[in-house]
């Protein structure tokens, strides 16, 4: 694999912007399958293990909170269950992809000391692995829920719009955390607390209506909230989110991605000395 990566990088250094983008794509095409193969080698269910956590947590939330919060979901425990499931898919994707991106540069330090490679490709690989897991494992289940609720296949491709906003958010946060982790190795412990705060401030297992009015504006600082709301509108209510809702999701994603990319590029020259 090292020889293949080195070949890709030597070509990358001699090409234009669009050719560079294509070569990034080629590197990701090597690294993502390699990572998936390593992660699930010998596993019976493979990527479908990624469904175990959201399904288990959905069952627990329904058992504990279902009867209490059903009145906020049309007096239906089933609706509450589906709302909790869609929220968990979003928060789990964020937590998993950004946590894996965080350590990706440090984990490949020995490789980077042997050959020169574009550094962003490692956190991007972690995001790509999780995108593949989501599309193969979770998305078909989400599509079935949407089709059953809406009776209209038109709503299924719409699910990809909030998911794309989620990928932008995760990529920006992943690049930022991967760069910061090179300098501060204790960051992993702090990031566990940060992801917990983001999870508890996302209306995953509780309806946003129960949050006190003076606290609700703070929930909208959480970039996952508009994404969760858009996904639920499409999959559970069979309505198309407003342009304002889509704009909020994408604007937050683009700002976070731009900030993460800029921070990564500013710091990357110091990485090799610390790896």
From TrEMBL:
Pfam families: ABC2_membrane. Coiled coil: none annotated. PANTHER family: INNER MEMBRANE TRANSPORT PERMEASE, TRANSPORT PERMEASE PROTEIN. It is found in: Cell inner membrane; Cell membrane. The lineage of its organism: Bacteria, Bacillati, Cyanobacteriota, Cyanophyceae, Oscillatoriophycideae. It is a multi-pass membrane protein. Residues 45-267 form the ABC transmembrane type-2 domain. InterPro entries: ABC2_TM (IPR013525), ABC2_TM_bact-type (IPR047817). Belongs to the ABC-2 integral membrane protein family. The keyword tRNA-binding does not apply. The chain crosses the membrane at residues 47-71, 77-95, 121-148, 154-182, 189-208, 246-264. It comes from Cyanobacterium stanieri LEGE 03274. This is Transport permease protein. Keywords: Cell inner membrane, Cell membrane, Membrane, Transmembrane, Transmembrane helix, Transport. The keyword Transmembrane helix applies.
């Amino acid at each position: 694999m090292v020889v293949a990566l080195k070949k890709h990088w030597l070509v990358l250094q001699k090409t234009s912007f669009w050719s560079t983008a294509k070569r990034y794509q080629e590197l990701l095409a090597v690294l993502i399958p390699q990572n998936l193969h390593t992660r699930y080698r010998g596993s019976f269910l493979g990527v479908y293990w990624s469904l175990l956590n959201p399904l288990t947590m959905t069952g627990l939330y329904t058992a504990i909170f279902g009867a209490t919060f059903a009145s906020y979901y049309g007096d239906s425990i089933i609706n509450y269950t589906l709302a909790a499931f869609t929220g968990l898919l979003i928060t789990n994707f964020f937590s998993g992809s950004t946590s894996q991106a965080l350590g990706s540069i440090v984990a490949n330090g020995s490789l980077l000391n042997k050959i020169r490679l574009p550094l962003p490709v490692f956190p991007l690989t972690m995001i790509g692995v999780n995108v593949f897991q989501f599309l193969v494992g979770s998305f078909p289940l989400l599509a079935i829920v949407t089709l059953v609720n809406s009776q209209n296949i038109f709503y299924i491709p719409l699910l990809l719009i909030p998911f794309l906003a989620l990928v932008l958010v995760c990529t920006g946060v992943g690049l930022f955390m991967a760069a910061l982790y090179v300098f501060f190795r204790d960051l992993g412990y702090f990031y566990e607390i940060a992801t917990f705060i983001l999870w508890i401030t996302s209306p995953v297992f509780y309806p946003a209506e129960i949050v006190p009015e003076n606290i609700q504006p703070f929930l909208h600082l959480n970039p996952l909230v508009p994404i969760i709301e858009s996904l639920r509108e499409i999959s559970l209510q069979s309505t198309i989110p407003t342009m304002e809702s889509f704009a909020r999701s994408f604007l937050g994603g683009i700002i976070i991605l731009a900030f993460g990319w800029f921070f990564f590029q500013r710091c990357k020259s110091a990485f090799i000395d610390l790896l």
